[in-house]
Each structure stands twice: as structure tokens, then as C-alpha cells.
Amino acid sequence: xxxxxxxxxxxxxxxxxxxxxxxxxxxxxxxxxxxxxxxxxxxxxxxxxxxxxxxxxxxxxxxxxxxxxxxxxxxxxxxxxxxxxxxxxxxxxxxxxxxxxxxxxxxxxxxxxxxxxxxxxxxxxxxxxxxxxxxxxxxxxxxxxxxxxxxxxxxxxxxxxxxxxxxxxxxxxxxxxxxxxxxxxxxxxxxxxxxxxxxxxxxxxxxxxxxxxxxxxxxxxxxxxxxxxxxxxxxxxxxxxxxxxxxxxxxxxxxxxxxxxxxxxxxxxxxxxxxxxxxxxxxxxxxxxxxxxxxxxxxxxxxxxxxxxxxxxxxxxxxxxxx
Amino acid sequence: xxxxxxxxxxxxxxxxxxxxxxxxxxxxxxxxxxxxxxxxxxxxxxxxxxxxxxxxxxxxxxxxxxxxxxxxxxxxxxxxxxxxxxxxxxxxxxxxxxxxxxxxxxxxxxxxxxxxxxxxxxxxxxxxxxxxxxxxxxxxxxxxxxxxxxxxxxxxxxxxxxxxxxxxxxxxxxxxxxxxxxxxxxxxxxxxxxxxxxxxxxxxxxxxxxxxxxxxxxxxxxxxxxxxxxxxxxxxxxxxxxxxxxxxxxxxxxxxxxxxxxxxxxxxxxxxxxxxxxxxxxxxxxxxxxxxxxxxxxxxxxxxxxxxxxxxxxxxxxxxxxxxxxxxxxxxxxxxxxxxxx
Lengths: 323, 342
Hints:
The complex is a heterodimer.
Chain A: E1 7-20, E2 23-36, E3 40-44, H1 51-59, E4 66-75, E5 78-79, H2 85-91, E6 97-100, H3 104-107, H4 114-125, H5 130-143, H6 160-172, E7 178-182, H7 190-207, E8 210-215, H8 218-221, E9 227-232, E10 235-241, H9 242-247, H10 252-259, E11 307-308, E12 314-315
Parallel strand pairs in A: 3-8, 3-9, 6-7, 7-8
Antiparallel strand pairs in A: 1-2, 1-4, 4-5, 9-10, 10-12, 11-12
Helix pairs in contact in A: 4-5, 4-6, 5-6
Chain B: H1 2-12, E1 21-33, E2 39-53, E3 58-62, H2 69-76, E4 84-89, E5 92-93, H3 99-107, E6 109-112, H4 116-119, H5 126-136, H6 142-155, H7 161-164, H8 174-186, E7 192-196, H9 204-221, E8 224-229, H10 232-235, E9 241-246, E10 249-255, H11 256-261, H12 266-274, E11 326-329, E12 332-334
């Protein structure tokens, strides 16, 4: 897979398990996906499916109670899992891969001026002087639509949308290849949300950056998606291009999820999924969705492999065996 | 005697419609003080809002954060005191209620909060959470209370009841917690439910389940519902009318289909444009939404409070004069100068 020269990120069998008092939490459990340059993939999933842990695993922002962290991650052909923490910090994080954390509005440091916060990664990673870094931060501010006057303000003086723009500026200053966006707009108002997505679309073109957008919001995820990956109980159960996915998802979970999205117009009956996802501590042996699946059959007691449907579309469901 | 008569006459401007809830020219302004004293202006959270709601009707109040929808809701619940205007609910006039009257008033309005986990006391079992309103409102017989609790839990489909009744909130999933919140709102058999973003904290698959539950309860109990939300795409699944709020005012009022298909206020248009549907084509286009943010409620702009962002501004009018309510289409009201000739 890695031989494709436009390929930016290849993730093979990535695992991130945590130790908890009740047992091992298998938050990310054998995730595979691939992302091209200047492409945006949406990781869709409900709360507790492990999507934020996936972001943390990719950026190696790990808590102390990690039980297992394994797999292979290639960024532009270079294997990342073999790097030491120090090498990873110096060469990868915020140099080639950065992140806009969840609730970015609260992720800013309240006692530093926002301009300094945006300049900081450049001073650390590119080793440039503060004045120059601030000049670049000013430039970045104008590109994300924040007035340069705001450089000297503190986070609390900014509105939610402005803070989100600052967090995006912070993730872009070192011109990384890949930005992970964790629920970038879920705390924002509808109009602000639309403005932020307009900004992200422009940035994607302008900076030729790739995005991994982690979200539970199916409708707004389509604003940015080139490809969609659906996550359920620690695993990715379907990956496909946005066009095919939004018109006809394959995995029964993805189908149900799409049927639960309220639409502005049209009269289709909304559906919901009965039951709740399995605990990540005590996972079933077969297909993890089987207990809630309307199309379950005998084979579902065994763990399904990933079936390649062609055209970079994969699905982890026995229904597609032999296709 | 003359006083009573006069009061009765005054009341008549309110009580001629048989509506369950009447909100009349409601102004909820919060006073700002400098250094703890000394007047420093007002936050105009709700600025001249009037509407009526009949028994069994559901309305949705849609708007962005800070538009005053929560202040409006809290005032209806009797938690804020309006500085002008009044609310009449089921024959009770909010401004004239004493302590006892207030208790009765509140017992007839159920409240469904946004964040179910934050709304449930973590140290109380589901039984005691549902017991408390009954005790406070004087249901003395424990047997009767127990029956009522079981009945309401069945209604919100927390069944089998025995699996849930002794549990604590943290043992339940988000959807189940929200059912407990709804059960608590329903337990005194209210006539009106105020639901403040009841599904915004829930996952997509659970969201629909809760919306359907609310819809069933509304129909089976002939409940009036005020559904407060920022998400236009969920409203049509269970309200009849939409009120679009912007900066403390109701910018547009109409039935759901009218708002969706024929929005009259530019703000409503922007909201509709900004609301996404899952469609791969979205990624290829930029949305035409106005930049900027809602105005300060302390110093609202002169004229229409949307004019600084409005793409259809009429210079010399919108920026100077407050728009009155126009009715260009029957029963479709809007505060917008564009419709002045209609």
C-alpha cells in the first residue's frame, strides 16, 4: 500500500489499549486506513467508540495508563512507531503532523496572549526568533480570518469562533502535512460552524494539507470529507470515498447511522439503533455490531475480516464476503 | 370591589383566546452594575417577545447561543423576573403569584434540561429523584408515589422498571439518563414541557429515540411543548411552529414548512444555508453565510439588530429604525424591513 507515491499516511493494525480498574480498555483495536496527500478523511463514530483515542495514538499524546501501543504508522513513507518519544517530538509532532484538539476554545492557555501561543511552535521547532515568529503568526492570523489586533489579546477576550480560528492557526504555523481535527465545530453555533468549514476548505486548497476530521456529526462531516471512515467499538468498520458513502453506505451500522440523521427537507422516517455499543473492556468475540445488527446471521459469531470492495473502499462485514 | 373589577378588565386583554400560555411583550433585561453597585446598563436578553401557545401545541425556538432563548425559557419557568411584560399560564399571572401560587405554577410546567448527567443529582437513586417532586407537592401516600413513579418510568420506557429504579445516574447511558430527566419532568402531569436542547448532548442514534419519545408523550398527554434548539434539522420532526430568535428578539414566526420553504428574514435564510445535510457535494462548495457574530446585548445596534451582518440591508432604514412586525404571508410574521410593502 505504501508504494503509492501520493500516499501520505498509512496506518496498519494500530492498537492503543488502556489499563483501567475494571480491566483493559481496547480503545483503538487494530485500525487500518490510508490517506493521500491533500485529502480529508472523516472518522465518524459515536461517543466512546475510540475516535479521540485514535487521534491521540496518531499524535502519540498518551496518558500514563497505556497497556498496549502497537502497529505501524507510515507518514510519507517513514515509519513512526520506531521513533523514540524525543525523536517523535522533535521531528513529527507539530512539525509534520499537528492537531486542533476537541473544545479548542478551552484548549488555549488562559494566561498567555494568543499571538504568543501561535508563535511558540515556530520558536521551538524552527528555532526562529520571537519577533520573526510573531510576524509569521500575524500572517497566519490574517489567513484564518482573525484581525492582527487580536495577537495581543488573551483567550477569554475572544469569542468561540475566534478561539477556534486561533487554534487552527496554531496547528498550521509550522506548515505540517497533516492536521488532525478533533470535533472542531461541535461547540459552535451553526453560522460560525459554516464559516469555520469554509475556512478549512480554503486552507486545504491553499496549504495542500491533509485533514483527519474526527466527529460524530454526520451531516457537517460531509462539508470537508473526501473519504469517510466509520468507527465502531475501537475498530474501523467501513472506509469509502464520500460520494459512494453518503449515497449508499455498506456496513449495516453505517446504514443505520445515516438513517438516523435528521434532514431539513424530505419525509423519510428517522431510525435509531436499538441497544448500545459493547463495553470496550468486555468485547464480544464475533462482529462487534452483531448484537444490534438487523442483518445478523450465523457467521457473525466470528470476527469478520476486512473485505476490499475495490476503488479504495473497504468494509468489515460478513455480508460482503466474496464480493 | 372596584379594584377587582378593574383587575378583571385588565386581565381580559390576555384571557380572550383560550391559550394555555400567553407571553405578552416580555422584556427580560439583566442589570449590569459597576463595582457591585451603580447602574451600568442592561443586558437585553429577551427584548419584547410575545406569543401564545394552545394546549397540545408544540413550538420550537431556534437560535444561536446568546440569542436569549434560554433566558426566555427560564422566565417561562419562573426562574427569571421580567422587567416588563407578563406571562399568563393556565389562568395564572406570573407577576402576581405568591409563594404558594408559584409552587402550583411550577408543578404544571415540566423542564427537560440539556445535559442529562449534569441535571441529575449523582447521589440520588432514580427512585428518589422521581420521588422528590411528588413529596414536595404533597403526595403523602408512599404507595401512591410508588405507583406513579412506576407508571411514569414505563411511559418513558425505562423498563423493566425494577432494573432501573434503584440505580444511580452514573450507571445509566446518556439516553437512559435523558429518559430519567423526561420522567422527572412528566411525573407531576404537567400541561407544558419546556425542553432545552434535549438531544444536543446525545449521539445521533440515540437522539432520534429521545425525539420520538417526546413526540409520543406530547400526543398521548396533549402536552404543550416549547422545544429550544439550535439545530433546525430536528425541529420539523416534532413541532408545528418555529420561532427564530436573534439577539433577544423573535425575528421570524411561522409554521415549520413555511420557514423551511419560504424564509422571509435574511437571518433565517442564513441559518438554513448553514445547516448541512449529509451530501458529498458539500465539500466542493463554499457556503454563503454572513461573517461576524451576533451583536452585544448590552449595546445592541440601532435599527434592526441583524443589520451589521445582513447582506440585504437597506441603507438609511435598517441601520436606523427598529423594524416592526410585518405579516407578508398570513400567519407568517417577521421583523424585517424588506417586507414593509407587503
